[in-house]
Amino acid sequence: MVGRLEGKNAIVTGAAGGIGLETTILMLREGASVLMTDINESTLATALTKVNTIVPASSRTGRVETKAVDVSSESQIEAAIAHLDSWGGLDVIFNNAGIMHPKDGDAEECPEDIWDRTMNINVKGVWFGSKHAVRSFRKHGKKRASVINTASMVALVGAATPQLAYTASKGAVLAMTRELAIVHAREGFRFNSLCPAPLNTPLLQDWLGDDKEKRFRREVHFPSGRFGEAIEQAHAVVFLASDESSFVNATDFVVDGGLTKAYVTPEGPATEAPKNLAQS
Ligand SMILES: NC(=O)c1ccc[n+]([C@@H]2O[C@H](COP(=O)([O-])OP(=O)(O)OC[C@H]3O[C@@H](n4cnc5c(N)ncnc54)[C@H](O)[C@@H]3O)[C@@H](O)[C@H]2O)c1
């Protein structure tokens, strides 16, 4: 199906890789215009080249541009959203950028500066994105708009492999998103949280490396026997961004292959994973 986001102007934060990059590609395929933003300018430039190869300008109706943005800086977020004024104003923002710092740990291990840095990016970044999105929706008289904030399944279940700052930050995203959804419901501005399970993206996989024990400790909890793929999250984001989800608001939208509902998981080989578009 194509055209599910026809005419919509979107911003994706953390668009240089993982979920953000796959989402950008799917959004363009569905007719949106996308401003890809990321703190890392060089990976953002590489990502744009990939996007233009996978969804060439001749095959799409929307435009794609990039802008370096650190989501923990309010002025940078504000400028990115203002960039879409000349496009007709923002319709969708995917506040997706986030970090999970290797020095994060349990209550004793997590250094205070890592706690603050995690909160500044994962929580304040989502707040700034949501705040300036609302201002922009109002300024442009939008009656249907969608904000999708990336949380995590770790905000719903406890784990004995702690990353306390990260988990707390994602819990804050869930609570903040829910409240924003209720506050703005009669303006037509929807807010939903995306709760991914652990994924096969650099954020987690670089950290796990080839440590088999660390890897198994997590894999055994997946009913499907495998980590999720970024594209499996991106499909959910497109749904939440589109008007198909007009009555979906304030949800913790869990995309986890059943992990948070599982007690004992099956044995046998894992299911086959879909291919990410940016890897093809
Ligand atoms: N990978 C997982 O297992 C997993 C699970 C649950 C939730 N998540 C969440 O999904 C989101 C996307 O993660 P991903 O797996 O695609 O990881 P990723 O590391 O591939 O992508 C994250 C992107 O965010 C960017 N970024 C980091 N700090 C930034 C900042 N201050 N400002 C702007 N951009 C910044 C990075 O440069 C990177 O391109 C994150 O919020 C993450 O916490 C990931």
Automatic annotation (TrEMBL):
Keywords recorded for this protein, A-Z: NADP, Oxidoreductase
Domain of life assignment: Eukaryota
Organism: Penicillium arizonense
InterPro entries documented for this protein: NAD(P)-bd_dom_sf, SDR_fam
Gene3D superfamilies xrefs: NAD(P)-binding Rossmann-like Domain
Designated name of the protein: Glucose 1-dehydrogenase
Family from the record: Belongs to the short-chain dehydrogenases/reductases (SDR) family.
Presence of the UniProt keyword Oxidoreductase in the record: yes
Molecular function, one GO term: oxidoreductase activity
One Pfam family hit: adh_short_C2
